[in-house]
């Protein structure tokens, strides 16, 4: 029997966990798979091993492990695969399929454009966009944001720059300063985040304490947008199709 285990990030902010669970339950209602469970990478229970155990107790012999992550970095490449390998050792008769994160996709770009237009209804010719990512030491992260900037430029939105909350440069404070130097217009800041938790508070504080604070307009984060439900369903269909092809070969 097939199961899907959704691996959410986890947060110290209860509202962030609530938002994630609400989003995932909406998605679960639209996916015809008999066993579906939610677990967390950190800070919240159940963890991944507990989530896998629950799937198997409900009768699963094949588990799609689906990360609820925007981009591929350390959690996607190391942490979750390590947990899957641990589970394979405990449950040798269970198949595990590892799904893809949301990744760089046109639907994500649609959400970014929507977030910008919520605050800016006219042309952005004299203004600029600053995307704020979580940050990672993984080299795929800046490459992903380069693709995002290029896709936004094709939609007529430029200039677009990127900064990070941690682990990559430029960091937030420097990113704000560099964005102001690009021109006399406003800087529209788009947090590349799924929920408005601690990182959003940090962004707000950095804006409020900046000498250029009146130049900044803070947009909403990506959030658990309805378009992400469709993208998540797409990722799950990819995993199911992969399983079917593997069974036939």
From TrEMBL:
Pfam families recorded: CbiX
KW Metal-binding (keyword) present: yes
Keywords associated with the record: Lyase, Metal-binding
A single GO molecular function term of this UniProt record: lyase activity
CDD domains membership: CbiX_SirB_C (cd03414), CbiX_SirB_N (cd03416)
Source organism, top-level taxon: Bacteria
Name of protein: Ferrochelatase
């Amino acid at each position: 029997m097939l199961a899907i285990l959704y691996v959410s990030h986890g947060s110290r902010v209860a509202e962030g966990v609530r938002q994630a669970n609400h989003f995932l339950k909406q998605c679960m209602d639209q996916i015809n798979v008999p066993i579906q469970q939610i677990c967390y990478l950190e800070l919240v229970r159940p963890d991944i091993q507990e989530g896998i155990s629950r799937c198997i107790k409900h009768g699963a012999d094949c588990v799609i492990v689906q990360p609820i992550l925007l981009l591929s970095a350390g959690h996607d490449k190391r942490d979750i695969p390590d947990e899957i390998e641990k589970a394979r050792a405990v449950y040798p008769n269970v198949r595990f399929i590892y799904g893809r994160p949301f990744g760089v996709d046109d639907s994500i770009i649609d959400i970014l454009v929507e977030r910008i237009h919520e605050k800016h209804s006219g042309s952005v010719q004299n203004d600029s966009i600053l995307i704020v990512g979580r940050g990672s030491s993984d080299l795929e992260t800046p490459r992903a944001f380069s693709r995002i900037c290029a896709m936004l430029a094709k939609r007529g939105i430029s200039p677009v720059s990127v900064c990070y909350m941690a682990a990559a440069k430029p960091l937030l404070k420097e990113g704000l300063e560099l964005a102001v130097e690009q021109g006399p217009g406003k800087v529209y800041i788009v947090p590349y985040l799924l929920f408005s938790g601690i990182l959003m508070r940090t962004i707000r504080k950095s804006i409020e304490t900046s000498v250029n604070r009146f130049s900044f307009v803070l947009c909403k984060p990506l959030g658990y947008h309805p378009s992400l439900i469709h993208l998540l369903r797409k990722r799950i269909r990819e995993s199911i199709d992969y399983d079917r092809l593997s069974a036939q070969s």
